[in-house]
Amino acid sequence: MKISVIIVNYNVRYYLEQCLLSLRKALADIPSEVFVVDNHSRDGSVEYLRRRFREVTFVASTHNLGFARANNFAIRKAQGEYVLLLNPDTFVGEETIRECLDFMDGHPAAGGLGVKMLKCDGDKAMESRRGLPSPLTAFYKMCGLCGRYPQSRRFGKYYMSYLSWDEPVQIEVISGAYCLLRHTAIDKIGMLDEDFFMYGEDIDLSYRLLKGGFENWYLPVSILHYKGESTHKSSFRYVHVFYEAMLIFFRKHYRHLSFWISLPIRLAIYVKATIALVQMLLGKSAHSMGFFSVKRKKEPEYLFLCSGKNLSSCRRLADNRGLTARFVECSVVDREKGHEAYLDRLSSDTVTYVVYDISLFSYGDILRAFEGNPRKNVLIGTFNPRNHILITDQEVLR
């Protein structure tokens, strides 16, 4: 078995469906197995997907295990030479996994590998490469020096933003959204630390790989990461879990620091968490009491790029949901240029989703079309003609 793919799901069945569809293509001809550990979703994820993906092993937990524990459950059963931890709110190109495996095979010292994660506007996600959050690195990030001097090797280390995006480079922290691990490395350093319920476990694992004598790498192959569809980052629970993870990591790896160094760091984490909670609380209270006038948000527009046989399905969906939409009937010869030929027809001040028919355009086509996209108000959408579902970063329309 070459690779075991593990996905932890929580209430994002349609995003997960798309992720599994992309994996089905990316894993063709690669000896593989796929595990989905469902953390007690309430949206019928397992029932919906089990009959559509019979090649996938579904584990339906009776309660929320958390990210680390759910992954560990599947890692214990994994038979692959490599283990890929993958978020459900992603999709991969058809060649992405093969290129990653070839790289790992050629770099035996590599314990883990991350990739170039794209946001829905085609911009590169900074979380694709990170440095270890040492006390000094974390300080530069929290006080804003990281953002102000991104090319500085000292101040910009949190995101390692001084590194090239276009060539393989060694990094320190691999994102848990796409984390390819050598199974023998996991056997040596151990699995994910279950003290982390969610957030921080990828930093801890990456640090332990480095301590274990392995290298962590970034490879410039692209995936899409919707970034957070399975979590609610405006919730009080998110703030609590996120900053608690920071404290766990600090206590675990920097407990040797003197009291006078560790105390300010602990205080800084508590202060940041308190400020985030207060801002959230004040914002919600102000809006509920009507202190801020709510400006009506402009409805997005949609440009459907679809095959002739699916044109009527796209029109029907747009009509049923009241979408402001235009339609372009595409053929195989249009796959290479994607939406680039239509940019001059799109509004410059309105969000436009370019909706790709996935029966005509490959996931790799979509990623290539959007990488380096100059129009940040033009975002990725996909249409699956088999289930008549449109997916964007904000919504699932049927």
TrEMBL record:
On whether Repeat is a keyword of this UniProt record, the answer is no
Instruction: Supply the InterPro entries for this chain.
Output: Glyco_trans_2-like, Nucleotide-diphossugar_trans
The leader peptide range reads none
Recorded protein name is Glycosyl transferase family 2
* Gene3D superfamilies per record: Spore Coat Polysaccharide Biosynthesis Protein SpsA, Chain A (3.90.550.10)
User: Which keywords does the record carry?
Assistant: Transferase
Q: Name one GO molecular function term.
A: transferase activity
Can you tell me which residues the record assigns to a coiled coil?
none
* Keyword Nuclease included in the entry's annotation: no
Instruction: Cite the Glycosyltransferase 2-like domain residue spans from the record.
Output: 4-150
**Domain of life of the source:** Bacteria
List, alphabetically, the CDD domains matched: GT_2_like_c
